[in-house]
Structures are given as structure tokens and as C-alpha cells.
């Protein structure tokens, strides 16, 4: 699985035009960060949320060279909601372009091969996802609410959550464990903690609050999100990812008409 992904990534980089070839891995990473900070709120984490534009796949409403995209990033498109970003250097704009070009071939491969309807059936059935996750009010609160996960994460990140959940846990999803004075250990999703107190959702979905001074021990714990690499086949993973990508909290129509 991992080597297949690397191969796709390599193909993407090779197929990319001259400029992206000169971009270093660092440039691309920098571009990815800038994209997440300045662009994803409108274009979506995969860059495909605005009708007719799919930045992640290099699909534009018209033919655009790297230099023209960088120019659009810095100057915006007058008389449209596409804003200028004057504080951004041309250099950084080119890093974003390099990032977008580098993802062109590797992105969507997973989700594009999946069927959201089948993914939903797996999510609610054999995947047992609703034991821990909630979507639009249905399911459990043990794990994070996934109602708008398609707005927050890229398809590749969602796939990683299923295959290798420990790789990257969002700060808001961290697990915390406390041991009380009578030696009871309670683990749950951390809601909040400060110098004196800690609040978490225990495994019965109850909100629990503790005074740190009363505890024998407390600290971050391992996530309970299982890996589904063995349980689900490649096609089933693709189906679930395409279902997750479709979860955008609000109707997609609301976002595509600028
Ligand atoms: C406030 C929302 C918003 C933000 C932030 C934003 N865009 Fe846009 N962008 C749009 C809209 C809306 C359009 C379509 C404009 C039009 O009607 O032609 C667009 C158009 C574009 C186009 C032209 C695509 C084409 O097919 O002609 C590119 C390229 C682009 N955006 C890249 C970016 C990048 C890169 C960033 C981050 C630096 C970014 N945008 C930030 C809303 C936004
Ligand atoms: C035993 C409980 C449990 C089950 C079952 C479970 N998850 Fe999770 N999941 C978690 C927890 C806890 C987290 C947060 C910590 C982490 O990211 O590892 C999480 C995180 C995630 C994330 C990342 C969320 C983010 O904000 O990035 C996704 C996506 C996800 N799960 C999808 C699924 C899907 C799809 C299934 C079913 C195939 C599933 N989970 C089954 C507990 C579970």
C-alpha cells in the first residue's frame, strides 16, 4: 500500500512541468502549509469545492500557466470573490503552485475509485464506525464528530486515518488518561485541560471533570481508533474514503455558488 502511494507520488512529480521539478520537497511542504492557511477555507482541503475548479487535479476554467496561477494568487481575480493576497511573495505563491502540481497525479485516486453509497453502508455496518463516531447527530461521541470531515481533511489524510491512525492525531482528538485517588483509571477524549483541572468524555460518553491535585496520575494516552488495513479490502477503504470526502456538513451547493 505504502509503496504504491510512493510510486503515485513519484509519477506525479515526474509528470509535473519544469517549474515543479525544480521545487524542493521543502518548497512543496511550505506551499502545502500556505494552501491550508490561505486557500482551503474557500477551495476546500482538496481544492475542488468551487464549481468548475479543481486545484488539486489541475482543472481550471481556462488554461493557466504556473506564472499565471502565481499572479492570480497574489493579485486575485478582479470583480470576483477570488481575493488578492498582497502580503504573499511571488516566491511563496510559486511554492503553492508547486504543491498543487505535486498533488495533481496522486490526489483523488483513492476517493475517485470509491462509491460513497457503499462507503456509507460499510460505515454504518461492518466497519462499526458509528460505535465511536457521529454524523449529523447519529452515532457515538467517543471519537470525533465526522459530520464535516470532508471540509477539513484531504482524501489522502482520510485514507491514512483508516490505515495508520496513530500516524497523525489532530490535537483536538487526543486521548487522555487519569488515575483517581481510589486507583480507578479513566480514559477518554480530552475536551479541555488547564493547570488545575482536566475534562474528558469517558467510554460511556459521560463528561467527566477532575481536579489534577486529586489524581494519582494523568497524561496523554493512545488513541482507540483501530487500523482497518486488515479488516477492510482496498475497494472498501476507497468506498469509505469517498463517503467521508462527501461529508461536508452543509450542502455542497451552498459553497459552489460564490
Ligand atoms: C474568499 C474565497 C477564496 C480564497 C481565500 C481563495 N480563492 Fe481562489 N477563487 C475563489 C473563487 C470564488 C474563484 C472563482 C473566481 C471566478 O469567478 O472566476 C477562485 C479562482 C481561483 C483560481 C482560478 C481558477 C480558474 O479556473 O480560472 C485559482 C488558480 C485560484 N482561485 C487559486 C487560489 C489559491 C492558490 C488560493 C490561496 C492562495 C485561493 N485561490 C484563495 C475563491 C477564493
Ligand atoms: C473504537 C472506536 C473507533 C472506531 C470503531 C472507529 N474510530 Fe475513527 N477515531 C476514533 C478516535 C478516538 C479518533 C481520534 C483519535 C485519532 O485520530 O486517532 C478517530 C479518528 C478518526 C478520523 C480522523 C478524524 C480527524 O479529525 O482527522 C477518521 C477520518 C476516522 N476516525 C474514521 C473512522 C472510520 C471511517 C471508522 C470505521 C471504518 C472508524 N473511524 C472507526 C475512534 C474510533
Q: Which terms would index this structure?
A:
258 residues, alpha+beta, Cytochrome Bc1 Complex, Chain D, domain 2, SH3 type barrels, 3 domains, five-stranded antiparallel sheet, two-stranded antiparallel ribbon, 12 helices, disordered N terminus, disordered C terminus, binds heme C
Question: Could you walk me through the main structural features you see in this protein, from its secondary elements to its overall organization?
Answer:
The chain is an alpha+beta fold. It has three domains: 2-107, Cytochrome Bc1 Complex, Chain D, domain 2; 111-168 and 228-256, Cytochrome c-like domain (Cytochrome Bc1 Complex, Chain D, domain 2), CATH 1.10.760.10; 175-221, SH3 type barrels (Roll). 41% of the residues lie in helices and 13% in strands. It has twelve helices and seven strands. It has helices at residues 2-15, 18-22, 25-38, 40-43, 66-75, 90-104, 109-112, 116-124, 149-152, 155-163, 234-245, 252-256; strands at residues 134-135, 138-139, 175-179, 185-193, 197-201, 207-211, 217-221. The chain has a five-stranded antiparallel sheet with strand order 6-5-4-3-7, with no helix packed on it. Strands 1-2 form a two-stranded antiparallel sheet. A hairpin with a 5-residue loop joins strand 3 (175-179) and strand 4. Helix 10 (155-163) packs across helix 11. The radius of gyration is 21 Å and the shape is globular. The structure holds heme C (2 copies). Residues 123, 127-129, 131-133, 142-144, 149, 153, 158, 161-162, 165, 169-170, 173, 223-226, 228, 240, 244 line the site of one heme C.
